[in-house]
Amino acid sequence: MKLLLVEDDLSLINGLSFALKKQGFDLDIVRTSKETSAIFADGKYDLVILDVSLPDGNGFDLCRTIRQKSKVPIIFLTAADEETDITMGLDIGGDDYITKPFKLSVLISRINAILRRSGGFKNDAVLTSNGITVKLLSGDVYKNRARINLTAGEYKLLCMFMKNPDIVLSSDRILGKLWDCDEKFVDSNTLTVYIRRLRTKIEDDPSAPKMIVTVRGLGYKWSV
User: How many domains does the chain have?
Assistant: First the structure.
């Protein structure tokens, strides 16, 4: 798998480069938006790791540019940890959003999870309930026969809920399954954003959700 790292912090570059190559990834590194535009081509990379603050611009604009010509998975890796930043990054096409400081093992797990998702599933099962249909072979999702577009994270979250109908899932359990992490890692802001975005796409009235229900003090459940 070939990755593109867009980052201008030399100390972080050195650490990530060593860790990612040790995991067997082929890695290209650029430090500016201009360098990224010069080197990037659709189909050249399996995943892009993108900082928001760059010397000649910001990662949000760069993500928009990439999305105009490619569906390559994009992970934001940034110190910008406000909920508005997370929402922005996911809304414009990011598949994941990780804030600094971060645990290296978590980053590796999320990279692997997204790469597995982008490679497709190896069975032809179909999930269906509440008017939502998920075709696992193709990764397509439909609401009342109309196709809806989900990011990799939203897709995995939806599948998790649909495979556990009427079961309350805690935030810890959701994040553990969502990112395939071996150790506890809770980012409540990110999960809140994902839940809200998924509700917006599948609920008839996102402000009064009927499918993904919040169970106060416990977590969330897929109500059938």
Answer: 2
| Six-digit token string for 223 | 């109500």
| CATH at 95 | 3.40.50.2300
Whole-prediction pTM value? Answer: 0.59
The range of the structural domain enclosing residue 130 comes to: 126-222
In Å, how far from its chain's centre is CA 114?
7
Structure tokens at 94: 């990011």
Virtual CA dihedral for 112, 113, 116, 120, nearest 10 degrees? -160
- pLDDT, residue 120, reads 40
Same domain, 86 and 183: no
Looking at the fold, whether 6 and 114 belong to one and the same domain comes out as yes
Q: Are 141 and 150 in contact (CB under 8 A)?
A: yes
Residues 114 and 134 in one domain: no
pLDDT recorded at residue 195: 93
* 146 plus 95 within the same structural domain: no
Contacts of 75 (CB under 8 A, 6+ apart): 47, 48, 49, 50, 94, 95, 96, 97, 98, 107, 110, 111, 114
Q: Is 219 helix (H, G, I), strand (E, B) or coil?
A: strand
Consecutive sets of 10 residues in the chain, 224 residues long: mean pLDDT of each?
92 91 89 94 91 93 93 93 92 93 88 77 65 84 90 88 89 75 56 91 94 93 91
